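Tutorial sheet, problem 5. The three components below are modelled jointly, 1033 residues in total.
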Amino acid sequence: MDFALSEEQEMFRSMFRDFSTKEIAPYVEELDHAEKPPLDALRKAARQGFLGATVPEEYGGAGLDPLSYALLIETLAGDCMSTAITLATHVSLVAMPILAHGTDAQKEDWLPRLCSGEAIGAFALTEPDAGSDTSRLHTRAIVEGDEVLLEGVKTWVANGEIAGLFLVFARGEAGHEAFLVPRDAPGLTVGYREPTLGLRCVTFNTLYLEGCRIPLSNRLGGPGDGGRIAQEAQDLMAIALAAAGLGVAESALQVAAKYATERVQFGVPIAQKQAIQNYVAGAMIETEALRYLVYHAAWLVEQGKDISFDASIVKAFGARVARSVTNRMLQVMGGYGYMEDYPLARKYRDARALHIIGGPTEWHDFRIARHIFAGLDLAIAP
Amino acid sequence: MDFTFSPEHRALRRMIREFVENEIAPLAAELDRTHRVPFETMRKLGEVGLLGVCFPQEYGGMGAGEIGYCILMEELNRVCTSTGTNVGAHIGIGAMAIYLDGNEEQKRKYLTPLARGEKIAAFGLTESGAGSDAAAIRTRAVREGDSWILDGGKVFITNGGYADIVTVMAVTDPALGARGGVTAFIVETQWPGFKVAREEDKMGIRGTSTAEIVFEELRVPHENVLGKVGEGFITFMKALDMGRLTLGAACIGGAEMALESAVRWAKTRKQFGVALAHKQAVQWMIANMATEIEALRSLVYRVAWMVDTGQPFTQLAAMCKLYGSEVASRAIDMALQIHGGLGFTRDFPIERGFRDARIGEIYEGTSEVQRIVIASNIFREHGVRIRP
Amino acid sequence: MRAIVVLGRVLDPAGIVVNRRAGRIFVNREEYILPPADRCALEAAMRIKDATGCEVIALPRALFPDDDVLRQALAIGADRAIYLSGRGPDCADDAFMASVLAAAIRQLGGADLVLTGATTLDTGWTQLGPRLAEILDWPQILDAWQVEVQDSMTVVQAVVPADGGYALAEADLPALVTIAAGALKLRYPNGVRLINVYRGIGAVAEALERWEWQTLLEERPTPVLERRGQEFPPERERGVRVSGSAAEMARAVAGALRQRLGR
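Model answer (structure tokens):
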């Protein structure tokens, strides 16, 4: 066993930090207030190759290993969780499935454009009546000759507003299927953007597919592969989300701990108070536990192991840690924590998203339990 | 023992429920969105007598006691935490300080228009360097003939941006500190030297004014000293005790709203072929919410009864606020989780409730300060005096 | 001038659950409210009081076990309220109550105007107003949306629905007017009056009187209804969705009705 980052990973991390401090941190507050997608940051991230973080260099990506990618998301989320989630959606939920399941033509067509930021990727799985229960989608895919007709409505499409490419899941003859739908496809309309509690720079939109016709060659994978593609992508995303949770928890701890050394009450800095010490110690323990869970999951990906079980563990734990750490750190900052002029309020609102996006924690708890009971020869239903 | 509400309190709740449903609930989302203080609601509340709910009728109040006031806070916060906060700062601490320690003349002159809602009150305690640590107060008051000259400022003052009357705590004898050296004053905001410096941008309770106020050579006549010179700390702590109890009541309302919507949604929303109500994870959340709300309700109204019957309640008031804010935060968090994505959008009141609820653990003394109050009371009974 | 307002009470619908399968109404919260139409009648009376300074007296629409509705009326602003106590017949219907109320009004020394809700929320009874007007031999205006008393205090004017629009009805006083639910924007009780009337202190509490209804009449009036039991109304059937042009939809609706009626 070796828990140290490689020299290369250390180098990447300091590069990510420089980038984030310079290109993201100064604009976060303004962007969050205006609820604007971080387009400028994405453009600059593209120049660094971050938009193709784990995509091989032959397609214009940066060819990062999974752990370095986790470090990237963690670092970005420390300054702006919205930017981290926007980028992770693009990489883990769109670029990676194309890399894994795309034909050569599809890869050559889309990956360079995704890596360069010419097209941002969006993931369209959730439907009004299908939240965690995506076992039966209502969006239909009807094959007509060498074309496919898509009909349906998708909700909570992350990156919807800024995307050039949508990975759309629909029910076909043989089961669920995945399709690469360019934004200019006829019959595709990006609709209502959800005004959200946190992650206010991520655009979550409704997507209407009305008589949306695309070539059959835009199908990702074979007939009936959609379910598996969606699950793999979500498992990868689960790790990225947990990494984002790690980033937001770490940074909240840093901000609040510094505040505790400066804020004087009853004649001493509040850092001298046991209640505050208890808060920061608890936060540190949880954050460190999460760190190694995230890095371990990234290592599993690197090793090419099945991550379906670990992805749920890391996501469920990440959501809990992010929530509880930001909550307690807000408490350390007292009234200032509640003010939008200080970063804790935003971090707290953002962190709450992790219990919901990428499958609510209850769903991941179920998947973990299902794995445990499967080992004891009992199948459980959701 | 009798745990039922009296007929007048039942009738009062019915009246308040009708009022808040018609006059306040329809505004709640807009107030939050546009960051607007609902002056018109304050005026209407005053017209029907609710802003004087707990004050005696001789001072323009309704005379419904602390139980009546708790009912008001519970019902207000069921539909709009912002309005509840405005009312709480006005009655619960602002006007309350004058009611508790004001002399007859001060009550006639100030409490009566406050109880009728003709004027709005705020409570000026917190400073940038002094939150719950009252001994660290920097605002100075210097005697000059029949007057006192105030210099300094206060931050995070609810209603501060538009109040007519602010009860202010200032240092009158730096040598004596919190015990003996600070004095409470009744300040009219129209007096020269009073200035509103800025409005805060908050995560929640956005329909309230949280302002920084500044005093520059503000001349206060000696007759506006509230209570005795040097005993301002005691006056303010008494007002805060009352405030804490009613914040507990406010939390019942917020938590109830969360439970009601969670139950409604769990009945309707289907996943995996059944309503969420049939999922044990959801059932546990609902059961926990309901249990905690009932425990909180019993605690709050028992303490309100103690206030109305003249029993000591400081430690219990801190418990009301501590437990109430945590129950409300947990309840709204679970309700948000049950609502899933819908709970995360600002199109649904749950999202607003989530942001609003979080202030409960912070204002009028953080949860940590409440624990200090509770622990120091307990240890004092055992002969140990603890320093915060 | 004197206006009488007759008020009932119903279980708060928000506190009950109707369970057809169990054949029962479950009362989760036994809380009574003024029925919406009666509440509007009280509001109409208060507006006339605001305009003319008349006296407003509240009477109960039935022999209630407590005087809660009357206290509510006093809190809202009625000048007097008379609680009618004593045991009534098993089914104290509108006919019975109209006689009792007529006697009470006589006992009060008469009145110029009686206002009450056009219909109750629970039983759906609508006859109290018309029957009371018959006994008093007064003109009546039913289902009004607005009521005004002329300056001369001799005529009442009311806006009533007619042919899809509204008509202005007029009657010489004394008269009886029933008010529709939802007709008026309601005022809230006055806080001080509310607390005092329920606590039983001050003038507002003294304005609540208690009369034995039997002492008002020589002869016990007979109800016209007899209670034989109770059951739910038949369950509403699923509707039929019609589509097409207006003419086609009209034909479809007419056809469905004919079929239902067997013609």
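Marking note: Chain B touches chain A through 44 residues (CB under 8 Å). Full credit if you identified this.
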